[in-house]
Amino acid sequence: MKNSIFTAICMAVLAMTACSKDYPSTLPSQKIAGIYEASTFKTEMFMAGEWKTMSNKTNERQLAHEFTWEGNELESMTDHNMGRFYSFGYDEKGRIDHIYSNSDQDFSRVISYDGDGHVVLSKGTIRMGNGTLLASQDFTFTWKGGTLEKVEEVFWSHYPDEDEINLTSTRTYTWENGNVVKTVRSEVRNGSPLNDTVYTYEYGTEANPLYGFVYTLHPSNGIIFDYEGIDCLSRNLPSRIMPGNDGVRYEYTYSGSPLAKAEKHMIGDTSPIMHIFTDYKLDFEYVK
């Protein structure tokens, strides 16, 4: 009798263990408190046989992104560059399922997950104070083998005194060693196809402190990188990003573990007589 009771208890524990599931986190892999940013912008023109500086502007170091935590949950994030405040809601599994924005120039979002814990749908809207819909943006995510294969976007907006916009896009992702190495974006705007946008990525060994942060999964919500959800998706930090069609390249250097400092250099060779250089320096602080 004792053996049968013991067996029953063991079977119950095993069943409970089998039913439990570890879902992918929707929070940054590191508990970031703040990201500080300084930047310089310079243009050069080739004149009279030499390169001459035409403009040179420096933005002093300032707090760019601020994170507030309640225990192990990210409560809010402030984007000081854009003047926007975001708060986060969670589902019963501890995943971010709502993103709220206080700005009428951004989208509050509802996020849905599949049985493996991957985001499958993100629906965003902008409304006037009286509830009138001004814009909507839906992302549908397709995963294969635990990696993101495709993102499909449907965007609509119709602001007062502006033309209606209908945009659809598809982004496809190529992976190597846990990192996205290529993205291709195809878009159709008001019935007219646009040229594909292609990015390729090279990586070092530095760990990405924003890995897993579902806010940055949305293609336009980059914090370190501005492209196609890389902040969320790639385990490592890219050393170079190369757009395929605009003559611009981005190079990165890092220090610290976890990441303490990052430098981003944009080099624009779009013209044989003009060069554009933009440099960003980022400092990271973490919750102690």
Distinctive features:
288 residues; mainly beta; 16-stranded antiparallel barrel; 8% helix; globular
Explain what you see.
The protein is built from 2 helices and 17 strands. The protein has 288 residues and is mostly beta strands. A 16-stranded antiparallel beta barrel has the order 1-2-3-4-5-6-7-8-9-10-11-13-14-15-16-17. Strand 5 and strand 6 form a beta hairpin. 24% of the residues are buried. About 2% of the residues have low confidence.
Short summary:
With 288 residues, the chain is mainly β. It has two helices and 17 strands.
The portion of residues forming beta strands comes to over 45%
pLDDT < 50 stretches:
12-18
Q: How far do the termini sit from each other?
A: 53 Å
In one word, what is the shape? globular
Task: Outline the secondary-structure elements.
Elements: H1 2-19, E1 32-47, E2 50-70, E3 73-79, E4 84-90, E5 96-101, E6 108-113, E7 119-127, E8 133-144, E9 147-157, E10 165-176, E11 179-189, E12 192-193, E13 197-207, H2 230-233, E14 236-243, E15 248-255, E16 261-271, E17 274-286
